[in-house]
Amino acid sequence: MPRRVEPLTDTKIRNARPRERAYKLFDGGGLYVEVMTDGRKLWRFKYVRSSGSESRLGFGVYPGVSLAQARAQRESARAIVSDGRDPGAVKQEERRAGLGRGP
């Protein structure tokens, strides 16, 4: 059974300080901020592929990607997972398609 987590706040993320080792602040639904030893705060989404293996998807660096934006990306990724697709593969396909376009 999944553990209950208190949703993150902008203040909690902003006040998170680096430690000797990287650590995670969970928001729920697979979304968390990984606080690195150098102080960077990276948005990550943990999900289970249709094959049953766990995977992680990065959403960007806080504060460049806000809490609201990360939550919106989580919901989008969860919808992709519920369709039986891999959001990491979808993201790669979108990148490849974007590289082929001209200005």
Brief summary of the model shown:
By secondary structure, this protein is an alpha+beta fold. The chain contains three helices and four strands; from the N terminus they run H-E-E-E-E-H-H.
CATH superfamily: Integrase, DNA-binding domain
Order of helices and strands: HEEEEHH
Round the Cα radius of gyration to an integer and report it.
Answer: 15 Å
Q: If helices are DSSP runs of H or I spanning 4 or more residues, what is the number of helices?
A: 3
Overall pLDDT score: 92
Gap between N and C termini: 49 Å
CATH class category:
Alpha Beta
What does this structure look like?
With 103 residues, the protein is of the alpha+beta class. It has a single domain (10-98), classed as Double Stranded RNA Binding Domain, CATH 3.30.160. The chain is 34% helix and 27% strand. It contains three helices and four strands; from the N terminus they run H-E-E-E-E-H-H. Residues 78-103 are annotated as: Disordered. Belongs to the 'phage' integrase family. Keywords: DNA integration. Residues 8-94 form the Integrase DNA-binding domain.
